[in-house]
Design brief:
- This protein is about 5% helix and about 45% strand.
- The protein is elongated.
- The protein is mainly β.
- It is built from 3 helices and 52 strands.
Length: about 500
């Protein structure tokens, strides 16, 4: 009896192992020379959830088509295959034929790890003597060299490479990489040698090194990109790259040549390697992968105005420091392209009736890759305050008048923020309520201050103004208060409404 039970258990176990093994067989593939290889030798389509627990090899003449919304997840188990050059240490794909992975903005194709544990959770998609592969609206994440190509011709459009060891590694190939984003790749975003590549319209930021040129890459074109904020270098010329590099026509996150050169490693820093010629560089980011859109309002009517984006407001609302700027149309609508990042958005308008300004409590706005954030910018008049009154016995102070449509606003909370703080949220260095005349006076230390006023019900720890409440910021901020001087400013408020999350978002204290 016991022997019969054991025999039955053995059969069930064998069946479980058989069907369990088949459960990891990718669609349209058959097992190759080992249990860790899966071969696709005819045209196959993937869709939905695909789990890969080995290396999928797409043979010459075969096309693997991957439909929108497909998630290809690789396991992380170590593999014992291949030689040192082309061997895979973890699951991945080797493409000798071609892959056509065409997602959409709403339904991208995702190449990821089954259980992500950081970069190198899976190996790579390796194009080997492959022609005609296309990756469009795809996400590559948690890989080693997420997309790796030798002697191949392929195209990448509107793809996101993040959290890999390297985003793209290319050798002896011809690639077009257009309108794509590389971020969070711990060693390099883009790495190529002896290739003829076109890199255009890409945002390359917050990687170890943005772009690395190994050798003989002068036939490549790197133009019209935003390359900025990488940890080591934005662009690095390798030890074997003897030729000079034309990298003109890109945006480097700054208009200061000294700052640009500090983040470029080339023949200026190391003898015997090529120099990077980055001039003329672009004053504004050229990418169209992300940004801010919305409407400029005057008394709840769309009007023409100019919209600016700043990386920091420590220097005030300085138009000259804008990362990008754009005019709204006659109906007030605008689209401001920005590479991914954190920005302060404000608006201005000048006409025969005066000067107008808009800055909402929703600031700063965080723009993610391939994201367009909607905002509204309600304009208020720029009100001229009195110049500083200084003299013997005068106490150092800042007087604030708060108004709405020319009338004083009583019971408004006025908060002072030091200019070097960098944001206008939470408690400031001082706060008080306005009087019946809409005024309040602060005894403050000399310094530079932003003045924020709001009135209405608030919600949450950050003091978000409820719909129907009032909000405003002094457009001349930061205001300078000098020792022994009385400074006066006037702040105009706008009413929080309901357009684009209430006329410019949830206004915060």
């Amino acid at each position: 009896m016991i022997r019969g039970i054991v025999s039955l258990f053995s059969l069930l176990l064998a069946a479980a192992l058989l069907f369990g093994g088949c459960s990891h067989l990718p669609p349209g593939a058959h097992r190759g020379s080992s249990s860790e290889f899966f071969v696709i030798d005819r045209d196959v389509t993937w869709k939905g959830e695909v789990l890969v627990d080995g290396v999928v090899v797409v043979r010459k003449g075969a096309t693997l088509t991957i439909e929108p919304g497909t998630r290809v997840a690789f396991t992380s188990r170590p593999l014992k295959i291949g030689d040192e050059h082309e061997g895979f240490s973890r699951p991945g794909m080797k493409v000798e034929g071609r892959v056509v992975a065409r997602g959409t903005e709403e339904m991208p194709v995702t190449f990821t790890a089954e259980n992500p544990a950081g970069p190198e959770s899976w190996d790579r998609i390796y194009l080997s003597f492959s022609k005609g592969s296309l990756f469009e609206n795809c996400v590559f994440e948690y890989g080693s060299y997420a997309l790796h190509a030798h002697f191949s011709v392929f195209t990448v459009k509107r793809c996101l490479f993040r959290f890999n060891r390297e985003g793209v590694r290319i050798g002896g190939s011809k690639a077009e990489i257009i309108d794509s984003v590389f971020t969070g790749n711990v060693v390099r975003g883009i790495n190529f040698k002896e290739s003829e590549n076109l890199i255009r319209g890409c945002a390359v930021y917050r990687n170890g090194t943005g772009i690395f040129l190994h050798s003989k890459d002068t036939r490549s074109t790197i133009r019209g990109n935003a390359i900025y904020g990488n940890e080591r270098f934005d662009l690095q010329v390798g030890d074997l790259h003897r030729e000079d590099v034309d990298a003109s026509g890109n945006w480097w996150g700054t208009a200061d040549p000294t700052e640009i050169e500090e983040k470029i490693h080339d023949g200026r820093d190391q003898a015997g390697i090529g120099r990077v010629f980055y001039r003329p560089y672009l004053p504004f980011p050229p990418v169209e992968t992300s940004g801010v859109e919305g409407v400029v309002l005057l008394e709840k009517r769309g009007v023409r105005g100019e919209v600016f984006a700043l990386k920091s407001i420590r220097g005030g609302f300085s138009d000259a420091d804008a990362v990008n700027r754009v005019f709204s149309d006659d109906d007030g609508f605008f689209q401001l392209f920005l590479p991914p990042g954190r920005y302060y958005i404000y608006g201005r308008r000048s006409d025969e009736s005066g000067e107008f300004f808009s800055f909402t409590g929703r600031n700063p706005v965080t723009v993610e890759p391939f994201q367009v954030v909607s905002v509204a910018l309600p304009l208020v008049p720029v009100l001229e305050g009195k110049g500083p009154a200084c003299g013997e016995g005068e106490r150092t102070s800042l007087s604030v008048s708060v108004e709405r449509k020319g009338s004083p606003v009583s019971g408004a909370t006025v908060v002072l923020y030091p200019a070097d703080r960098g944001d206008l949220h939470g408690p400031g260095v001082a706060s008080a309520l306005t009087s019946q005349e809409g005024r309040v006076t602060f005894r403050v230390s000399p310094g530079r201050y932003f003045v924020v006023a709001r009135k209405g019900d608030v919600t949450g720890m950050r003091g978000k103004v409820a719909p129907g409440g009032l909000y405003g910021v002094s457009p001349g901020g930061p205001v300078t208060v000098r020792e022994g001087c009385r400074q006066e400013v006037r702040v105009a408020l706008f009413e929080k409404g309901g357009l684009f999350d209430a006329e410019g978002g949830e206004e915060e204290r």
